[in-house]
Design brief:
The complex is a heterodimer. By secondary structure, chain A is mainly alpha-helical. Chain A contains three helices and no strands. Classes of the chains: A mainly alpha, B mainly alpha.
Chain lengths: 100, 645
């Protein structure tokens, strides 16, 4: 029997993997994918709780998150493309001019 | 016809009628010198070649008109000689209305004739005296401004317009005393005169505010009509405030210190300040405000005491100064002291104060022009110990200066005898202890006057020559000597003309009232005064005429030393006012730098330092931002959980 606790545990595992990926990896594409992983981990938790409480609020929010993620990817990839054109590198550590 | 009648039936209540006929053009008196000043000061170098001629023509034109207006006044009956000429509404605010108007009455016309007449002569003298000065045009512009301001002062029909002229005189004196502003001493003297005058001006402006607060008007007719209904305290306060104003302009104790330093100005300026304008303004203010002083015996006594103290103070200073101009300046203080003393005696003395003022205008202008002539020929040397024997090389200057000398010490039939003795008489007539003290002071002053003027005379014109070989004095050009001759004739005749038959007394009676008693000319007091004069002159002759005058000043007695230092007037000002003022400013500056600025600066430095460190967090690495965001989010979640529990 799969209990809500299993869903939440999976969601936490996915979120942590995504978070570590965001913090540890330098390649912007990978970081993007890790961000997606974190978002989807949260989606999983929302849907699981929606099921648990028997209403649709969590499922609706999951849709919202998906829409926002799609928009974010569009903008993010556009920025990434132009940075890559300028610097021939997709490493986020190379784009560090905007600072104190 | 807008004849306004002041309320009270006293003799001092002021009645004026509207000006008619030739007097309707009285504004010309002001416009001539003012136009001269404007053209010369704004015209710049273009007017250099003829500027001095215009500068002389304008006061002369004013004088000619003044004489015409004077004779027009004489043709009116005595009760209708005060004529008011409304010019325009200056401040027409509800509840506060100030009109600019001119008041032609016997008192103001006396001043008009003195200012424009003696002023014109001084202007003519200055043409020669300033001939070699590249800034002569500017000088004449300032001189005309001086006359215009002084004429506004004496012609105004309300205190506010008088105050405008009063301030104009202060400005013009500042510009003229500091005319050679490249000399630090002259610049300092100008500043000193201005600041000392500001103290007096504060008194006058407070008096005007008090008048407005109490009576709701500042016109002479309004104030003098309402003053009878005012409380005793208000009247005395008004009198004392006006006295403070008069002390500033007339260089009376305790605001006397600027007058001697003012000798830094060119000599025609000294003559103008001392004879025709400026120092006479204080006497004018007191005499003009006679309805106020008539009502307050305390204020009158204060005026008389200030006058008596200053006449001795100035005379003592005059006895010790070796600088001819400063000796004469001391004598001016002393003579103005006589006038203030007379003005402080009330109706018994007002007319005599004016008589002495007019006579003094002649002989003091003559003396100063004589001193200027000597200075001019001696290459700007003013130390009398380096003069001597000048009567042979400068005979005209010697004779005209001598006339002024005989007039000031009061030898009959010269002016001073006629105008000074009535003041001494009136002081004794006051009666009581105060009368005796004031009269004695005036008598002693007469003896001191004789001493210091004889000393000036002997040191300058008699004895052996003590000047250097490279100085070649000779008589001044006629443009300088002719005004001196006219003034010398005035020194001879003015006093007798004014006093004999009570001419001036009767002329001024509608404005200032008349003295209760009239003495003859041969009285015990005048005999005593004459005896003291002869004693004073004899002592001076014994000290400076019979003996040779040393070129360097001897050490002298403690009194001489004190008098040379102007009786420590400057030291007192410095220790009582200047040094505490400096400490106060230093303290304020310290508090401002350390306290106010320190607080602000410390705060700014702390903020700046902190932000300089904090901004290091913004290192440009996206991942470090992400880590911070995670930590922040974790902190938030932790906090929320903590609150739930």
């Amino acid at each position: 029997m799969v209990s809500p606790a299993h869903f939440v545990a999976l969601s936490v595992i996915l979120f942590v993997i995504g978070a570590v990926g965001v913090l540890a990896r330098r390649n912007a594409i990978i970081i993007f994918m890790c961000v997606e992983l974190m978002l989807n981990a949260v989606n999983l938790a929302f849907v699981a709780f929606a099921r648990l409480h028997g209403n649709l609020n969590g499922q609706v929010i999951a849709f919202f998150v998906m829409v926002i993620a799609a928009a974010e990817v569009v903008v993010g990839l556009a920025i990434l493309t132009s940075i890559f054109r300028a610097r021939k590198s997709a490493s986020v550590d190379d784009a560090n001019l905007l600072k104190y | 016809m807008t004849g306004s009648v002041a309320g009270a039936p006293s003799a001092a209540a002021m009645t004026t009628v509207a000006a008619i006929g030739v007097q309707r053009a009285a504004w010309l008196l002001l416009v001539f010198p003012l136009a001269g000043a404007i053209i010369l000061l704004l015209g710049g170098k273009r007017t250099n070649s003829w500027g001095h001629l215009l500068g002389v023509a304008m006061p002369v034109a004013s004088f000619v008109y003044g004489v015409i207006a004077f004779f027009a006044m004489l043709s009116y009956p005595a009760s209708q000689r005060s004529r008011d000429l409304h010019l325009y509404s200056w401040i027409p605010v509800a509840g506060f209305k100030v009109n600019i108007g001119l008041l032609l009455d016997p008192l103001s016309i006396c001043f008009v004739l003195l200012i424009t007449g003696v002023g014109s002569l001084i202007h003519i003298f200055a043409v020669g005296y300033m001939a070699n000065d590249p800034e002569r045009r500017r000088f004449f512009g300032y001189m005309n401004l001086f006359l215009a301001a002084m004429l506004l002062l004496v012609l105004a029909d309300n205190y506010l317009a008088l105050y405008a002229g009063w301030e104009g005189v202060g400005l013009a004196s500042y510009l003229l005393i500091g005319f050679w502003q490249f000399k630090p001493a002259a610049a300092t003297a100008a500043k000193k005169a201005f600041i000392a005058n500001r103290v007096g001006d504060a008194g006058l402006s407070l008096a005007i505010m008090l008048m407005f607060a109490q009576f709701g008007t500042v016109t002479f007719t309004g104030v003098f009509g309402a003053v009878h209904g005012a409380s005793k305290g208000v009247v005395t306060a008004l009198g004392l405030l006006l006295l403070l104003g008069a002390c500033g302009k007339s260089a009376q104790l305790p605001l006397q210190s600027w007058l001697l330093d003012a000798m830094e100005g060119p000599t025609p300026v000294s003559a103008l300040i001392h004879a025709a304008t400026m120092v006479t303004a204080g006497v004018y203010l007191i005499v003009r405000s006679n309805p106020i002083f008539n009502l307050s015996a305390d204020a009158r006594l204060a005026v008389a005491i200030v006058g008596a103290a200053t006449l001795l103070f100035g005379a003592i200073i005059g006895c010790a100064k070796d600088d001819i101009k400063k000796a004469l300046a001391g004598s001016t203080m002393s003579q103005i002291g006589y006038m203030m003393l007379a003005a402080g005696l009330g109706p018994a003395g007002y007319a005599f104060a004016i008589a002495h003022l007019l006579a003094h205008g002649f002989f003091k202008a003559g003396l100063f022009l004589g001193a200027g002539s000597v200075k001019h020929e001696m290459d700007d040397e003013v130390d009398m110990r380096r003069f001597g024997g000048l009567r042979k090389v400068m005979p005209i200057t010697y004779v005209t200066f001598g006339f002024g000398y005989l007039a000031i010490i009061g030898i009959p039939p010269f002016s001073g005898f006629f105008t000074k003795d009535p003041i001494i008489e009136a002081a004794f007539d006051k009666g009581g202890t105060s009368g005796a003290i004031l009269g004695t002071a005036a008598l002693i002053g007469a003896g001191l006057t004789a001493f210091y003027m004889t000393r000036v005379m002997f040191m300058t014109f008699f004895g052996e020559r003590r000047w250097d070989d490279k100085v070649h004095p000779h008589e001044a050009p006629s443009v300088m000597t002719s005004p001196m001759v006219v003034l010398a004739i005035g020194s001879l005749c003015a006093g007798g003309f004014l006093i004999i038959d009570n001419r001036l007394v009767n002329f001024l009676a509608p404005v200032v009232g008349s003295p209760p008693t009239s003495h003859g000319f041969v009285t015990p007091v005048s005999g005593g005064a004459l005896a003291l004069v002869i004693v004073g002159a004899a002592i001076a002759w014994a000290m400076y005429g019979r003996r040779e005058v040393p070129v360097t000043a001897p050490a002298g007695s403690p009194l001489t030393v004190a008098a040379r230092k102007e009786l420590y007037g400057n030291a007192i000002n410095e220790s009582l006012l200047m040094r505490p003022g400096q400490w106060l400013t230093r303290l304020s500056v310290y508090f401002d730098n350390r306290g106010v600025d320190g607080l602000v600066n410390t705060l700014a430095a702390t903020l700046g330092g902190t932000s300089g460190r904090v901004r290091r967090i913004e290192n440009g690495f996206v991942r470090s931002y992400a880590l911070l965001m995670f930590l922040g989010a974790a902190l938030l979640v932790g906090a929320l959980l903590l609150v739930r529990i």
